[in-house]
């Protein structure tokens, strides 16, 4: 396999690993030799994914947690360090999209998007930072990575997408600020901004795909594996190469 062995001896923590981009990224990084910590709320799905990875001679740790609670985020990172002894890569892939008319959308849905898309990412990153910086000093690769999954909705605002836009703009901005803060310490921060992708995201609330197609028309959606490949490209580059931002749209999406 291309790039095989590049991540041997490293540990990657992936949130949102129970489905979609998080799941695909966990599989891809495990294929490349990383031990993977699988984090999400749905333990049964995590266990199925761990079985798949271990059946392919990979190493996986299941951690069922709600990372929108800072204490849970702290527990997750502590458990990874206790089990694997290090942390080299953090992929913040957990995401929630509940778009719709602002007058009719419940405030609870807005709060949930802020909690999952921003607070969870913020809490995990905060807890992981000391361990990622330590990994830089103890790894033959001499580098560590944080990959945040944002969205093209973090670049372009649209009607009925206000709070999802707000969270994803925030992720993109925070990633760039962290990149500047930690680049001299060989801790790379990167953001991936996918367009329409065939995951459960559009199924999290009725009418979201119809809303998308009313603006952009029908498109052949990206696969989660396409975004996982972008994440793998980022983290397998040598220390001298930092991929700051990747935008990936379906060919059909304007």
Give descriptors for this structure:
globular; sulfoacetaldehyde reductase (NADPH); 7 helices; seven-stranded parallel sheet; Rossmann fold; EC 1.1.1.313; 254 residues; oxidoreductase activity, acting on the CH-OH group of donors, NAD or NADP as acceptor; alpha/beta; NAD(P)-bd_dom_sf
Which secondary structure elements does this structure contain, and how are they paired or packed?
Layout: E1 11-15, H1 20-31, E2 35-40, H2 43-55, E3 60-64, H3 70-84, E4 89-92, H4 107-138, E5 144-149, H5 162-182, E6 187-194, H6 208-216, H7 224-235, E7 245-248
Parallel strand pairs: 1-2, 1-4, 2-3, 4-5, 5-6, 6-7
Helix pairs in contact: 1-7, 3-4, 4-5
Describe the 3D structure.
With 254 residues, the chain is α/β, with parallel strands linked by helices. The protein has a single domain, classed as Rossmann fold (3-Layer(aba) Sandwich). It is 45% helix and 15% strand. Strands 3-2-1-4-5-6-7 form a seven-stranded parallel beta sheet, sandwiched between helices. Helix 1 (20-31) crosses helix 7 and helix 3 (70-84) runs parallel beside helix 4. The two termini are 33 Å apart. 44% of the residues are buried.
Terminal residue distance: 33 Å
Which geometry do the CA atoms define?
A: globular
Q: Tell me the count of domains.
A: 1
Give the second-level CATH assignment, the architecture.
3-Layer(aba) Sandwich
Our estimate of the beta-strand percent is: 5-15%
Helix content: 40-55%
CATH topology: Rossmann fold
Structural class category? alpha/beta
Count of distinct strands = 7
Number of helices: 7
Average pLDDT figure? 92
Radius of gyration: 17 Å
Unreliably modeled segments: 1-5
Going by CATH, the homologous superfamily would be NAD(P)-binding Rossmann-like Domain
CATH class: Alpha Beta
Q: Please write the string of helix (H) and strand (E) elements.
A: EHEHEHEHEHEHHE
Strand order of the largest sheet: 3-2-1-4-5-6-7
Q: What's the story with the biggest beta sheet?
A: 7 strands, parallel
């Amino acid at each position: 396999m291309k790039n095989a062995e590049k991540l041997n001896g490293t540990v990657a923590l992936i949130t949102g690993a129970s489905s979609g981009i998080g799941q695909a990224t966990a599989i891809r990084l495990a294929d490349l030799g990383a031990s993977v910590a699988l984090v999400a709320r749905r333990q049964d799905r995590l266990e199925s994914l761990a079985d798949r990875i271990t059946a392919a001679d990979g190493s996986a740790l299941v951690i069922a947690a709600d990372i929108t609670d800072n204490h849970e985020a702290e527990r997750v990172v502590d458990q990874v360090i206790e089990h694997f002894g290090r942390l080299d890569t953090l992929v913040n892939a957990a995401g929630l999209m509940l778009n719709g008319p602002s007058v009719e959308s419940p405030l609870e849905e807005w709060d949930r998007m802020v909690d999952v898309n921003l607070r969870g990412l913020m809490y995990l990153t905060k807890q992981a930072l000391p361990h990622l910086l330590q990994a830089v000093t103890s790894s033959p690769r001499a580098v560590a990575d944080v990959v945040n999954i944002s969205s093209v909705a973090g670049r372009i605002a649209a009607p009925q997408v206000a709070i999802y836009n707000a969270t994803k703009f925030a992720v993109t901005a925070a990633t760039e600020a962290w990149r500047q803060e930690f680049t001299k310490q060989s801790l790379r921060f990167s953001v991936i901004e996918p367009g329409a992708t065939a995951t459960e995201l559009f199924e999290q609330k009725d009418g979201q795909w119809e809303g998308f197609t009313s603006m952009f028309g029908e498109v052949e959606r990206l696969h989660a594996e396409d975004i996982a490949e972008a994440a793998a490209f980022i983290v397998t580059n040598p220390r001298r190469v930092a991929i700051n931002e990747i935008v990936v749209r379906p060919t059909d999406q304007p």
